[in-house]
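Per reviewer request, we include the raw input and output of the structure prediction for the construct analysed in the revised manuscript.
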Amino acid sequence: MTYSHGAGGDYLAKFGLFSMMSLPVHAAARRPELNGFNLADYVPSYDTTKHFMERTGLAIVLGHCQALEPENAFRDWADVSEMIQRYPQYFLTPELELVPAIMLEKDNSHGVQDISCRFGFVVFCLLHNFDYGKISSQEAGYSLLHRVEGMQGALGRRISGQPFTLPLLDPQSASEEELTAAMKEVLRVICERANGATFKAGGGFISAFPARANIAIDFEWRPSELASFLEAAKKGQAKEYDLKDMPTFPSYRELLLRAWNLLNATGPLACTKLTAHTFQFKKNPLNPLCAPVRGPQAFRDFLNLFGGWTPQPRPAPRAAASGSGSAPGA
């Protein structure tokens, strides 16, 4: 899966489109060097009939009005969670259960070096009970290799330079309620225009919605409150921080405290690994705060090929040979 911040514009307010793509999975190799590759040769516990499932690609965009929902890492995770909730059929195992592991490619905005991103990702993994999760980003200067970039051009062609007519004779004298209603209407129209845009990457079309519109959510991502909780946690005041109750998710406080403790666990209890361009979370059976592992043994055997964590991508051979600096590997 891959996602990125997208097109936006300034009208009465700033609007942003958050682009996300679930990549398709095919039985036949699309790259010549993978012809004849059989994972079972390296992971004997892997069984194609049990563990493999073809998937079609999915591209969606969630729209935001910055004045109503400011951009930060927690808003990003709210969007990724909403994608899974809106389209659960794209994230199911052959047994029709939520996949136990997820790998995401993202841009460097609110990237893995930002503790808000890492904390939010652990909350995200706990919320969906993932055994394993990984975020990767391209190195600086290689953002065009980000697969979701193919969506941005399609969005730009749909909405760039298009005016909006609103029933506000004078925005300067409009009330706060009138401005809020106008901003929501602009966002609705932006998403309506973006909906259905086609693009080559993934060979599909884009579905666009205003974020959090017409969907029932048990866990309410509260970006501002989560950011404040994180600041308190960094000062050793996580337990004392006054969180607002969440009636639809009574274990809200417990979830955040678990996430903070798991993020900071070290030694035999460690559950995370950070590198320059990756961040990984993995359930650790030795850590009592982790829920039981639910995925197949084959995936754990796959991770064990690399010492329990997937490796950092290597520099492309041509860049290493030329001495021109590192570049993303395959």
